[in-house]
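Hi D.,

Good news: the full-assembly prediction came through. Inputs first.
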Amino acid sequence: EAQVTQNPRYLITVTGKKLTVTCSQNMNHEYMSWYRQDPGLGLRQIYYSMNVEVTDKGDVPEGYKVSRKEKRNFPLILESPSPNQTSLYFCASSWGSGGPREQFFGPGTRLTVL
Amino acid sequence: AQSVTQLDSQVPVFEEAPVELRCNYSSSVSVYLFWYVQYPNQGLQLLLKYLSGSTLVESINGFEAEFNKSQTSFHLRKPSVHISDTAEYFCAVSKSGGYQKVTFGIGTKLQVIP
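Then the structure:
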C-alpha cells in the first residue's frame, strides 16, 4: 500500500529536550516536505526537499532541522524544543520533476512541548 | 512571494444546498493550484488539482473548481452537499517549472447542517 508514515503519532516532551520525528514514504517520490498546522493559521511549510541531500527552507524553518540521506526518509529534528513548537505536524511527499503535482500526507504527529 | 487567501474561515450550509468556497492567490509566475480536504481527526488528502489545460477541474465526489487567471481565483463549488462533506478545506499554490515552496491558505471549515 502506498503511504507516508510518521512516528511517533503523539509526543509530549519538555523544553530543551532534543527530539526527532521520522517520516518515510514508499512511493519513490523525489519531493518531501514538513508542515505544521495551527488553529487559524492553516498549514505552514517548515522545510522541503527536492531529492537526496537537497533541502530548502519553507516559511517557518526557525527551530527545526531536516536531513535527506535516503530518498524514502525525511526526519524532522527539534534540537531544543520550545512551547511555541507545540503543534500538529504533517509530512508529505510528491512526484513530479516540474514542481510538486500533488502531495500525499502522513497521518500527523501531535507534539506538545511543556 | 506567493500567497493564498481563503476569505471564509467557516461556511455553514444546509444539506443538499449548493456551496462555494473561495480561494484567491497571488503569484507572479505560472502556478499549480490544489484543493485538499481534511476530515475530522484525519490527515489531508487531495480533492482536486489544476496543473495545466482545462481550467475547470472536477473531483470524483462532485466538487469542481475553476482556474480564473484574470481574477487569480480557484473557487471550489459543489451543487448539492451531503453531511459527509463536513470537513476543512484547504487551497494551496505552488509555482510550476521546478521544485518550489507550497503555500496553503488558512482553511475553510464546511459545516453541513441536516
